[in-house]
Specification:
The chain is an alpha/beta fold and 380 residues long. The chain has 13 helices and 9 strands. It has a 9-stranded mixed sheet. It is globular and about 55 Å long.
Length: 380
């Protein structure tokens, strides 16, 4: 089901679909979007409903399908669902929690079931920061174990890192750590203050640019790919850097990357625009960080919700963007984080609050709060 990313029509199907299989998790992460709890919810999608969801993903030919949580390992039907996905031609990634449930045996069973990629989180360069982030002692060591076991099993590994005020001081150490690990992708998340995520932990616009600079530097030498989540303006930053390099006559050769079976996201991907999130109870959201439901798969087919719901249609319309995002020459490929705009203003079409770029000819309103001051305004 390999589909060239740039040929995908976002009005017809997403490039990326994520199913939150459960909100049950034994961790207590400080930034948890789901505000996960130890026990499973009684109204979670059943095994049969999960298989029907996977069938819908297969029918839509969605290139990337991710099983997440909570902790998906808390569901006893996890392996059966991965086998079913493989049988209907859906390649699956999994984001388990680094708890005692994630064992070497489980990693090898996941590989045998047909998992295409294992994604584990690493939010600090050492145990002190990471374990405090995750709310469990030993989580950092288990994450390193999981990477090693996946390498042994021949299972491609993705590392997820969420940058916030709690770990931004370790960015150089985290970059160095990523260079030491055998991974195919470093997926860098930027905090959206929803769930347990706190506004005081949000980076300001200038700090976003500093992280962008480090990611760009690393991308030129790293043997793995780098992608961002809820930092759509990294695409603007990359275009600006490439234009500057061309003007300076600089030609950069891309390093050879580790083989990977899952494609890179096309330009313009955003919340509800090439992206869909299905909750543990079947609600359909533009992303896991934008908690506005467009419908429920127990009541309507996923394809209909994605293609026809007023919310998704509006989010795919760049003319709906407001503030400097609406005036920006990069809005077709960026569009700003709709989730972060909603989290800070209650309006998913408002401008990206953590972008320092001012579009050509745009005059900011004096009433707009500057994102670079948000953490100060909140008393951080």
């Amino acid at each position: 089901m390999q589909i060239p990313a740039e040929t995908i029509d976002f009005s017809e199907k997403p490039f990326l679909a994520i199913w939150e299989m459960t909100q049950a998790c034994d961790l207590a992460c400080v930034h948890c979007r789901a505000s996960a709890q130890p026990e499973r919810h009684p109204l979670e999608l059943s095994t049969e409903e999960g298989k029907r969801l996977i069938d819908a993903i297969a029918a839509m030919r969605v290139p990337v399908f991710v099983l997440t949580g909570g902790d998906p390992i808390k569901r006893p039907d996890l392996f059966d669902l991965i086998v079913h996905a493989r049988q209907v031609g859906v390649r699956v990634s999994l984001t388990p929690s680094a708890t005692p449930l994630l064992t070497r045996e489980v990693v090898f069973r996941l590989k045998a079931a047909g998992l295409a990629r294992l994604a584990v989180s690493m939010d600090g360069a050492g145990a002190a920061t990471h374990d405090a982030f995750r709310g469990m002692s030993g989580s950092f060591a288990r994450t390193l174990d999981a990477v090693r076991w996946a390498n042994e099993a021949g299972l491609p590994v993705q590392i997820n890192t969420t940058f916030s005020r709690r770990n931004i001081g370790e960015i150089d150490e985290l970059v160095a750590l990523m260079e030491q690990l055998k991974i195919t992708l470093w997926s860098v998340f930027f905090l959206v203050p929803t769930g347990r995520g706190k506004l005081n932990d949000l980076l300001n616009a200038d700090e976003f640019e500093q992280v962008f600079a480090r990611l760009h530097q690393l991308s030129q030498i790293a043997p793995f790919d780098i992608k961002t989540t809820e930092a759509q303006h990294y695409r603007r930053y990359l275009l600006q850097q490439r234009a500057a390099e061309r003007r300076a006559g600089i030609t950069m050769e891309s390093p050879e990357k580790l083989p990977d079976t899952i494609g890179r996201a096309p330009r313009g991907l955003n919340d509800g625009k090439g992206f869909v999130f299905i909750s543990h109870t079947g609600d359909v959201f533009p992303s896991g960080f934008l908690p506005v439901s467009a419908g429920n798969i127990r009541e309507q087919p996923l394809a209909r919700i994605y293609r026809e719901s007023p919310l998704f249609l509006a989010l795919r319309d760049p003319s709906r963007l407001e503030g400097k995002c609406g005036a920006c020459e990069f809005k077709q490929i960026c569009g700003g984080s709709r989730a972060r705009a909603y989290a800070l203003t209650g309006n998913p079409f408002d401008e990206e609050p953590c972008c320092s770029y001012i579009p050509k000819g745009f005059i900011p309103s004096s009433s707009v709060k500057h994102a670079s001051n948000l953490h100060v305004l909140q008393g951080a």
